[in-house]
């Protein structure tokens, strides 16, 4: 196990060094822009998103039954991830009219379909958990007796 960890550590260090050397090939203004975006992303996460998620999580645990916690959490995480991934293409700001292959889809419709699918699966998972919970609470009948 120690050898695997050492190999993984060396691979990670090498990949990090390779990434840094690629970054250093950028002009100074691009490096400043990258550093600004990186710092703002960390600050935005720590100052806005993390506290907001904590408040929503605590509120949801107080308001929802326990069988719904995991499906709602998974659906929420998937929704937020999709929204962040889709944000750049939703406005179609960089669509190029003479190149139909760039942003050639209806991204808002695709996002809506994906979100409906995520929440439908979360609903199915919650209903399955609810049914399993209901079955485990139901008193069992002894069906081994024969009637003569």
Description:
The protein has 148 residues and is mainly alpha-helical. Helices cover 77% and strands 0% of the residues. It contains four helices and no strands. The protein has helices spanning 2-23, 28-63, 66-90, 107-137. α3 packs antiparallel against α4. The radius of gyration is 25 Å and the shape is extended. The model has no long low-confidence stretch (mean pLDDT 86).
List the helices and strands and how they pair.
Elements (H helix, E strand, L loop, with lengths): L1 H22 L4 H36 L2 H25 L16 H31 L11
List keywords for this structure.
148 residues, mainly alpha, 77% helix, extended
Compact overview of the structure:
By secondary structure, the protein is mainly alpha-helical. The protein contains 4 helices and no strands. Helix content is 77%, strand content 0%.
Average residue pLDDT: 86
- Total number of β-strand segments? 0
Percentage of β-strand residues: under 5%
User: Ends: how far apart?
Assistant: 64 Å
Find the structural class using helix and strand composition. Answer: mainly alpha
What value does the Rg take, in angstroms?
A: 25 Å
Shape: extended
Report the sheet with the most strands, covering strand number, pairing sense and barrel closure. none
Q: Level of helix content?
A: over 70%
- Series of secondary-structure elements, N-terminal to C-terminal: HHHH
Number of helices: 4
């Amino acid at each position: 196990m120690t050898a695997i960890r050492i190999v993984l550590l060396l691979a990670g260090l090498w990949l990090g060094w390779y990434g840094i050397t690629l970054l250093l090939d950028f002009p100074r203004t691009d490096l400043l822009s990258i550093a600004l975006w990186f710092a703002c992303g960390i600050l935005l996460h720590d100052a806005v998103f993390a506290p907001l998620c904590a408040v929503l999580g605590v509120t949801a645990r107080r308001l929802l039954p326990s069988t719904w916690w995991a499906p709602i959490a998974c659906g929420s995480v998937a929704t937020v991830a999709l929204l962040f991934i889709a944000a750049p293409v939703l406005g179609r700001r960089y669509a190029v009219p003479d190149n139909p292959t760039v942003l050639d889809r209806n991204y808002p419709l695709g996002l809506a379909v994906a979100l409906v699918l995520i929440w439908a699966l979360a609903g199915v998972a919650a209903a399955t958990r609810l049914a399993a919970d209901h079955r485990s609470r139901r008193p069992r009948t002894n069906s081994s007796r024969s009637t003569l």
